[in-house]
Structures are given as structure tokens and as C-alpha cells.
Amino acid sequence: MRKPPRPSPAVSDADRALFEEAIGPVRRHVAAEPLHEAPRPAPEPRQFELDEARVLDELMTMRIDPAEMEVGEELSYLREGYRPDVLKRLKRGSYSVQDEIDLHQMTADVARAAISGFLAEAHQRGLHCVKLIHGKGLRSRAAGPVIKRLVDRMLRQRDDVVAFASARAEQGGTGAALVLLRLRK
Questions:
Q1: Torsion over CA of 99, 106, 166 and 64, rounded to 10 degrees?
Q2: What are phi and psi of 123, to 5 degrees?
Q3: pLDDT at 140
Q4: Burial profile 20-48: b = 16 or more Cβ within 10 angstroms, e = fewer
Q5: Which tens digits make up the pLDDT trace of 40-58?
Q6: 161 φ/ψ angles, rounded to the nearest 5 degrees
Q7: DSSP class of residue 172?
Q8: What's the CA gap between 64 and 54, in Å, rounded?
Q9: In the predicted model, is pLDDT for residue 71 greater than 60?
Q10: CB distance 114 to 101 below 8 Å
Q11: pTM of the model as a whole
């Protein structure tokens, strides 16, 4: 239960005189008339407009050929002479990933050497399915996904690669490639 507020004590004439002597003469504050400002104009989304204009410029000067990437930016390849169900099973995730390498933050030259070494070692160890995490190239700007295109080109040229495809969403999606290697004899 709340207590009622105590009444403020009455100020004696001696206290009032002492206060006025310490402060000096006091005058009442008179509120000024409020200024009538003109209504503000609606805000203009200048930064948004600048961003949109930059996107159009980038699209016009883009160095990547969209025809190089497949629909949905998914990687997919099956070496000639292998049955199509091999690629289907790879895309479904039927093969267990036995090792992986992350190529993020690498330059193209460093990634090229890393991929070659990784795949040679995987083949030597008798691994059948590996994953290359190349990223989606979101920070590559107009150059497009540099490492992703490098992975696509390199894997198509290697004799020990049977098939490769973009990983399932839970394995990295279009930012990673599952690679099926030819088994050692």
C-alpha cells in the first residue's frame, strides 16, 4: 500500500528573504511565441539512387560472361564414358565426403596450387569423394566468382576427376563443389 505524499513544508519569510538575497532579483519567465516553420520536404533517398545507378554501371562494364556459369550458378560435370546416375547420386549426396579444403581468402595462383596438391594427395590416399569450398564470389565484385570459375576449369581438365557438382545446401550449396575421384587401381 502506498503512503500518501507528505505536504511540502511552508517556507518562512526569513528563508524566502535569505533565498532572494542570495539569488538576486527574480522575474517570471514568459514563454515566447512558437516559430511557425515551413513544412519540411519529404526526404529523398539519394544514397539509394546512387547505389542503383552504380549497379547499372557495374552491369554494363561487367568482366564476367554470364554464359560461363550454368543456370543457378551451380557447377555440374560428368566425364564422358560414365553413366548419368553417377552425377545424380553425387548431387543427391549419396557419396560420403572423405576430406575437404577451404579456398577462401586465397588468390587464384595460391588456390590453383592448393587444389592441385590436395587432389593429388586425395587420389594417392585412395579417397573417392572430396569437397572443395570455393565460396560464392560475393566479394569479387565485377570480376565474378574467380575461385569458383578456377575450380570449374581445373576439375574439367583433370584425368582423375570422374564428376563434380555443387554441394547440397547443408554442405555449402553453390559455395562448395563435391568431387568424385577415379579409384586407384
A1: -160
A2: -65, -40
A3: 64
A4: eeeeeeeeeeeeeeeeeeeeeeeeeeeee
A5: 888 888 888 888 888 777 7
A6: -95, 120
A7: T
A8: 17
A9: no
A10: yes
A11: 0.59
Residues 66 and 167: their CA atoms lie apart, in Å, by 21
Alpha carbons 156 and 166: distance in angstroms, whole number: 14
- Please name the fold of domain 74-181: Ribosomal Protein S8; Chain: A, domain 1 (3.30.1370)
pLDDT tens digits for 120-138? 999 899 999 999 998 887 6
Check pLDDT > 70 for residue 68.
no
Angle (CA) 52-56-58 rounded to 5° is 110
What's the rounded Cα separation, in Å, for the pair 130 and 59?
A: 35
Considering the chain, what is the average pLDDT of its residues? 84
The three-class DSSP label of residue 77 is strand
Strands of 176-181's sheet, edge to edge?
76-78, 161-166, 176-181, 129-133, 99-102
Q: How far apart are CA 117 and CA 109, in angstroms?
A: 13
In terms of pLDDT, which residue wins out, 50 or 100? 100
